[in-house]
Design brief:
alpha+beta, phage-related protein like fold, 30% helix
């Protein structure tokens, strides 16, 4: 005679199937929960395997182009050393869903069970979203979580029209920006210490756009900042303030715009910075086989009839084109 499933077995099956069946929905909710995460997610690319993340980058130009070729013309066969490979370390995030025995006993009705499961999922989505966004806009070097914008795009005073370059000091993607010959791996930037935003902000915002355009040939695709810094811009344009609908992957965002460039804000961003990001400058590389993948349910040691299921996500935020980025720092300082 077949045994009747216990309540705990039934709930385990229900919760497991809910998390597995809704895995894509959970991922989408995490990466569309804020404008900042939606933008980073739209720059997501997969890499299956390998000990580290490898990305090819250009640091020079092909000099073999010839003009005025006619009948019988010849061309020299040259191969310039213009491509190198950068290397980033993988980082893995983990989160747990814990079902306590008392919670299960107190939520044994059909709809109570559904609400309990949904609460587990919503809590995990919120925890992942907050942690990841804080790291993305922070100063981490990629050894404990994702690399942060303040590490990838350094506070250096570089302008595309200047002949001299202030090198960065960080080792990014395995390349030390401070070493000789690595000026190409440093971003643009401007220190606005002591400069009144009401007088200088728009002027240096134009300069930052020009910096990116000099390298990429086009305007930045977005400005990443805190709403405090964005509000300084809004104070200047006042009644001429405009908004726009911008497509980030499959998601549409309504954002304040300037020169056709959308502002995307994060409450975790420093209040004195504006990052101008060119096309394909940032990449979120992820391991598709370990992207919010969950373990089976297991009973923790010394916690009888409690059950835990852990979820892992493996990836890294990388910069591929530092020269396609510019930062205004110490805004209104």
């Amino acid at each position: 005679m077949a045994s009747v499933p216990t309540y705990s077995q039934t709930l385990t099956t229900f919760v497991s199937s809910t998390l597995d069946d809704h895995r894509k929905s959970v991922i989408d909710q995490i990466w569309t929960s804020t404008d900042m995460l939606t933008y980073i997610s739209s720059r997501r690319e997969s890499q299956a395997g390998a000990k580290s993340i490898f990305l090819p980058v250009e640091y020079g130009k092909n000099t073999s182009i010839k003009k005025g070729l006619g009948r019988g013309s010849t061309m020299d066969l040259t191969m310039d050393e213009i491509i190198t490979e950068i290397q980033y370390n993988w980082q893995t995030y983990g989160g747990s869903v814990i079902r306590f025995r008392d919670d299960e006993l107190e939520n044994s009705g059909k709809y109570a069970v559904f609400n309990l499961v949904q609460a587990y999922i919503n809590n995990m989505i919120k925890a992942f979203s907050e942690t990841i966004e804080q790291d993305i806009v922070g100063s981490g070097d990629g050894t404990d979580g994702f690399s942060g914008l303040r590490f990838l795009i350094e506070d250096v005073a570089n302008v595309a029209t200047d002949s001299s370059v202030t090198k960065g000091s960080n080792t990014v993607g395995g390349i030390n920006r401070a070493s000789g010959g690595n000026d190409w791996w440093t971003n643009w930037g401007r220190n606005l210490t002591g400069l009144d935003p009401s007088i200088y902000l728009l002027y240096y915002m134009r300069e930052a756009v020009d910096n990116v355009r000099t390298y990429t040939g086009r305007d930045p695709e977005t400005i990443l900042t805190h709403y405090t810094a964005r509000n300084l811009y809004e104070d200047e344009v006042q009644e001429t303030l405009r908004t726009m609908d911008v497509k980030m992957g499959d998601v549409g965002i309504r954002a304040v715009e300037w020169k056709g460039i959308p502002f995307l804000t994060s409450p975790y961003m420093g209040t004195t910075r504006m990052y101008f990001i060119g096309q394909d400058a940032l990449k979120l590389i992820y391991e598709p086989r370990m992207w919010f993948k969950s373990t089976p349910w297991k009973e923790p040691i010394n916690q009888p009839f409690d059950f835990a299921r852990q979820t892992l996500a493996k990836g890294q935020l990388c910069i591929k084109k530092p020269r396609a980025t510019s930062v205004l720092f110490n805004v209104n300082n």
